[in-house]
Write a structure and sequence with these properties.
The chain is α+β, with helices and mostly antiparallel strands. Helix content is about 50%, strand content about 10%. The chain has helices at about 1-15, 30-100, 105-115, 125-140, 140-165, 185, 260-265, 270-275, 285-305, 375-385, 395-410, 420-430, 440-460, 480-485, 495, 500-525, and strands spanning about 175, 180, 195-205, 210-215, 230-235, 310-315, 320-325, 330-340, 350, 370. Strands 1, 2, 3, 4, 5, 6, 7, 8, 9 and 10 form a ten-stranded mixed beta sheet that branches. Helix 11 runs antiparallel to helix 12 (about 420-430), helix 11 (about 395-410) packs across helix 13 (about 440-460) and helix 12 (about 420-430) crosses helix 13. It is elongated.
């Protein structure tokens, strides 16, 4: 009986479960839903493909736009340079028009004839007069220069040693020994007061180092910055070429895997402590001079009790100009200027360079002028070994410097400087054979220097002796990068400053006319 009841119940339950009204077959619509889903997936895939094509087109358009903008920037830069050249030519034409020279069509020969008149009928002093003038007026100053150099060098060494003791070795710049350069150390200074020029190389504290770029290193420098360079303060282990993260703007959600944020960004106060220009890594010449003046003042306060004279900064426009004042009223002036060595050479970036009347606008404080004074001194010493005894090259330069200085004291300053005169001598030293500089040929070589200078003034071209000169003696070890560079015209500012140029030419011609009178006067007056 129980088994029969169980079977009946099982049959009833089975009938109920399979009844279509109670449990309809929902899976009967699955095939229709599957087809709809597949259709929607195809439509979605098509829309995604179209969106991808649209994005690729936008990226291509953006790249084309970027290239167009870069090309336009290059065109604008070229147009600026072209505009600068045209502005310069227009300015020259305007000045010529105002001065009434625009109708002159005589050409170069007429111009040379005008300049050549300075030598026509000129009563040039003979050998005896020049020899007597040199012996009585110039030769006697050599002993004074030697004594002054010895005194200044000894004091400067003591001052720099005291400077090192007052500086923080872990934070301040490291100062090296000073070196003498210029006319006082090349033995051709004639005008008083005598001034010694000393340069002081310095380096940053560890772990930093200097890395420099010059106008001829392939980087873009404007034409008015030829002869200059910039100095970057870097960590010693920093990549020389620099990571791409330093040259491109990474997104906010992107991080350079080579450089962490702590390594790439430095507090601005830290860089300012390293004498950099505000918010940059470039060494600031003004900051360097302020630091150096403060350090020299502290050093002098430490050792002043040892000396019976006073020390002060003598010129506001020359931050490194110092003056020793004795109790007797006498004084000695000298320049102590910090410099940065260019790589492993004796070329130096100088923090302050005297400006002449040819100077245009002052450069920014991150642009440093390069000085080749050490190589110039070495070249003169090297060539002097091959010249006859008592050669006249230095005598010619001294006489020319004396005459030009006297003429400027009578008629006012001109665009010529003693450095231009020395450059003329360096070119002639390289161009002429050694026997031409014998002492008895003083008159002929002096005339050569005057004629060479006149030609350079007429052409407005006097090239730097070392830059672009492939004939520099290999014994000097001169950096090849500057030998291969384009020649640097020291008279380039004459092209823009026509008033200074005409004043300079007039002063030069007046000096030639007064030369015999000046030499005779100073020869007679001095017993």
């Amino acid at each position: 009986m129980p088994v029969g009841i169980f079977r009946v119940c099982l049959v009833v339950i089975t009938a109920i479960i399979n009844h279509p009204l109670l449990f309809p077959k929902e899976n009967g619509t699955v095939p229709e839903n599957t087809e709809e889903i597949i259709q929607k997936m195809k439509e979605r895939e098509e829309s995604l493909r179209l969106e991808q094509l649209r994005l690729e087109q936008e990226i291509a358009d953006q790249e084309a736009t970027q290239k167009a903008l870069e090309k336009a920037a290059e065109v604008v830069e070229e147009s600026k340079e072209e505009k600068f050249r045209w502005d310069m030519l227009i300015e020259l034409w305007r000045q010529d028009f105002q001065e009434g020279n625009w109708q002159d069509t005589g050409g170069e020969e007429d111009d040379m004839a005008v300049l050549g008149k300075a030598f026509k009928g000129l009563a040039f002093p003979d050998k005896a007069v020049l020899a007597s003038f040199y012996e009585k007026r110039i030769l006697g100053t050599t002993g004074d220069m030697a004594r002054m150099r010895e005194m200044v060098e000894g004091f400067a060494d003591d001052l720099l040693e005291a400077l090192r003791s007052v500086c923080n070795r872990d934070a301040d710049m490291e100062v090296e020994d000073c070196m003498g350069v210029g006319s006082m150390y090349e033995n051709w200074r004639v005008r008083k007061p005598f001034v010694c020029d000393l340069i002081v190389p310095f380096a940053p504290p560890e772990p930093y180092c200097f890395r420099s770029q010059t106008w001829c290193s392939g980087d873009s420098f404007p034409p008015d910055k030829q002869g200059y360079g910039i100095i970057k303060v870097c960590r010693a282990n920093e990549d020389v070429t620099g990571c791409i993260c330093d040259k491109t703007k990474l997104g906010e959600d992107m991080l350079c895997l080579l450089h962490s944020q702590a390594n790439t960004t430095r507090p601005s106060s830290e860089m300012e402590d390293l004498l950099c220009f505000k918010n940059t890594q470039y060494l600031d010449a003004d900051q360097v001079m302020k630091w150096f003046q403060i350090a020299v003042t502290k050093a002098w306060n430490r050792i002043s009790h040892k000396y019976e004279f006073d020390l002060s900064f003598s010129l506001l426009d020359s931050p490194g100009a110092l003056k020793i004042k004795f109790r007797s009223g006498k004084s000695i002036a000298f320049n102590l200027t910090p410099v940065v060595q260019y790589e492993n050479s004796d070329v130096y970036f100088i923090s302050h360079f005297p400006r002449s009347s040819l100077a245009a606008d002052l450069p920014s404080s991150i642009h440093w002028f390069l000085t080749f004074a050490v190589y110039e001194r070495r070249f003169i010493q090297l060539v002097s070994k091959t010249l006859p005894a008592n050669a006249c090259h230095v005598s010619c330069l001294q006489i020319l410097s004396f005459l030009h200085g006297k003429q400027c004291s009578l008629t006012g300053p001109s665009g010529l400087t003693n450095y231009h005169l020395k450059t003329v001598m360096l070119h002639l030293l390289q161009a002429r054979p050694s026997q031409d500089w014998a002492p008895e040929k003083l008159e002929a070589r002096l005339q050569d220097m005057l004629k060479f200078l006149e030609k350079c003034l007429h052409e407005k071209k006097l090239y730097h002796f070392f830059i672009g000169n492939g004939k520099v003696p290999a014994e000097l070890g001169f950096p090849i990068i500057f030998q291969r560079a384009e020649s640097l015209n020291l008279f380039r500012p004459f092209v823009l400053h026509r008033d200074v140029y005409r004043k300079t030419v007039d002063t030069f011609h007046e000096m030639l006319r007064n030369m015999s009178a000046l030499i005779n006067e100073y020869t007679v007056r001095i017993p």
